[in-house]
Structures are given as C-alpha cells and as structure tokens.
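Researcher: I'm preparing a figure for a lab meeting and need a structural model of a single chain. I don't have an experimental structure, so a prediction will have to do for now. The sequence is pasted below. Please return the structure as tokens so I can convert it later.
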Amino acid sequence: MKKFLFLTICFAVMTSAINAQSEGWKGVKATYNNFELEDADAISSFSVGYVQGFKILESLPVFVEGGANAIYTAGDIAEGVKYTSFAAEIPVNIGYKFNIDDNISLFPFVGVTARYNITGEIEDGEDADKFQYGWQIGLTANYANYNLGVSYGADLNEIYEETKTTSIKISVGYNF
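Model: Understood. Here is the structure written out token by token.
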C-alpha cells in the first residue's frame, strides 16, 4: 500500500507540473554517487539521466523537477563480499530558483526518489529488494547551460534484510 501511495503522489506531482507553465528546463546529467550501506563500506555508483524542470507558480520561481536515471553500482561492501546492481530511478524534487544574474542561478531542492533495482545481488546470493523509495535534499548551481549539483539522500525502506542506504551525489549536466 505504501508503494502505491508513493507512486500516486509522484504521478500527481508530475501531472500538475506538466500542466503548469512551460517555463523551465530540459537537460542531461552524469552523476557520481558515494553509496553507503548501514554497517558496510561505501561503494561507488555512476548514473546518466534526463531531467526536466517545470515552473509551478506564476508569481514565484518555484519549480518541480523530475527525471529518469540509469544507475550502475559495483563494489566491495565488506572484505570479500561484492555488491553489484543496475537500477532505474525517478527523482521528483521541488525547489526555488535564485537567479543571481542572466547566466548564474542556484536551485536548492528537496524531493523523493523511486528506484527499481533491475538487477542486484550480494556475492553471497542475497537479492536486493527490487523497489526502493527515499528522500533527498540538494543544491544545483547553473552557469549558462551548464550545471553542477550536490545532494544527500537516504532510502526509507530496506535494500536487503535490516539494511538501508544513504548517498552523497555529485552531478554535472547540460541544459538544452
């Protein structure tokens, strides 16, 4: 039931954003993710994705930003124990765009993520939970069409028995 409610909220936010004003952005990004499992070593993850921002208030620069990412994760979570996964992620954020000048802006945001682990297992054969959902908070700095972002987030459910994840992400991107 929680998964259904979460997906319904994501769909409602995206639908309202699509019906909002056309002012916004579309772009691509690449992300490095320092992915940490509870009681385990941090491992690296890389993703590529598409992002789109929609202005939702006429009087203020408040935007909903949605996207889709393909994520590859691989590394040792403990001595001799490997974890690998390939996942698809849909982030939905809301934020305020501070325009510093014509070419520079800052976009602090908070949001939710839904991730489907297409493949994912620990070397000992334990499968990862197929569906993850979580939250994130971050900041994107834009210069002309280029951007640099940093965010922190955590899963709200377990990826496998008694284990949740947290992550710090650094991304670079280009807006069309």
